[in-house]
Amino acid sequence: MIFNEEFETMPREALEAIQLRRLQATVARVYNTVPFYRRRFDEAGVKPEDIRVLADLHKLPFTYKNDLRDNYPYGMFAVPMDLVTRIHASSGTTGKPTVVGYTARDIQTWAELMARTLTAAGTRKEDIVHNAYGYGLFTGGLGVHYGAEKLGASVIPISGGNTKRQVMIMKDFGPTVLTCTPSYALHVAEAAEEMGVSFRDLKFKAGIFGAEPWSERMRQEIERKLNVKAMDVYGLSEVMGPGVAIECIEAQNGLHVFEDHFIPEIIHPRTGEALPYGTPGELVFTTITKEAFPVIRYRTRDLSVLHPEPCRCGRTIVRMGRIQGRSDDMLIIRGVNVFPSQIESVIMETRQFAPHYQLMVERVGNLDQLTVLVEVNEGMFSDEIKNLQSIERDLEKNIRETLGVTTRVKLVEPKSIQRSEGKAVRVIDKRNI
Ligand code: DLL
What we know:
By secondary structure, the protein is an alpha/beta fold. It has helices at residues 5-8, 12-33, 35-44, 65-70, 104-120, 139-151, 163-173, 182-194, 216-226, 340-347, 385-403; strands at 84-89, 99-103, 128-131, 154-156, 177-180, 206-210, 229-236, 241-247, 255-257, 262-267, 281-287, 298-304, 306-307, 319-320, 325-326, 331-333, 336-338, 353-364, 367-376, 408-412, 427-429. 5'-O-[hydroxy(phenylacetyl)phosphoryl]adenosine is lined by residues 90-91, 133, 138-140, 210-213, 232-237, 241-242, 300, 302, 323, 326.
């Protein structure tokens, strides 16, 4: 069964009519139940009745991560606590996490959207899903879990970590779909190799990887190493968790946004101006069906682009491009803007390097210096040191010519960069230590 396929292939006007109705209801509800939104709307001089057409969305003020922090933990909830049945929190790298809540119906909606997500990525009832996203406050584990159950697939709730045991289970239980972060997928592949297990002998056909930025080249590497089709999945706790957008297995070319539940916009990150389809900028989401924790024009800080053209798979809902990075992950090295995933792409142009790297930013004098630590592939490290140095210079040159940024490349021994079990730590910023 394909869940609510009609929403995904609907003519635009019909979908927009549904969006408008749901938006109006959400705006009226948050105005009446969340003091924060009432205050913000009043300050902006906008009332729920002012939302007459979809474009009126632009009249509404943005919501920022700081607003959620200021209302920590439950101040943004739009229902009383007796209707909240689940609480999750974002991983929040600094300070307090962001707390989000779900009613029983929100959990059902999420399960349905995750069933649609898994379906779009090729999962069927007969499949066995090896779910190595972390279970707990992080939305990845339970998000996939409920979706797989709703779909009627079998789910192995393995969570992250204990990697050798994961490989044994992959061998013995015969899972067909792998769900985890892309960096963990590579970590598992490495552990399998050490154990003499080949992914060619496992039953995986698809992998649904997300929760962190990864490049097109990383996809190719994962597809080759794990012998699967790799799909990108996107979501964030504040909007729901995973299941906001997914790549279809047919095209693997951009992530379909479930527009019957979330209205995406792309805006200019500095001016806030709404940008047309095809222009890159910051993703902003408005939830239009959530009960416990609706968000209005939430500034994700994720940079992407929206494409309205229908997809080969038949879906008419918009596709967002691979996330380029978060505006707060952007490094400015001597005036040049660069995202970790852009450096990843250059590193992975050749097979000399293992797909494991870390970026270290330091202040030297008044200047920021970026050191790229990259693992060489097994076998290479024993080669002549002189040779290694010329490889370092070559990669520095490649990065400079491709991205216009000057870096220092340092090759490190195989397996010396810490492996992640969830989201990889790509940047070590030593400037403020
Ligand atoms: O990472 C939800 C999730 C779980 C998505 C499992 C996909 C799979 P948070 O912990 O709140 O939620 O982190 C959300 O992670 O704003 C992005 O910066 C980043 N992110 C999520 N998916 C992708 C992706 C989950 N496919 C934050 N590509 C988001 C790049 C991603 N970045």
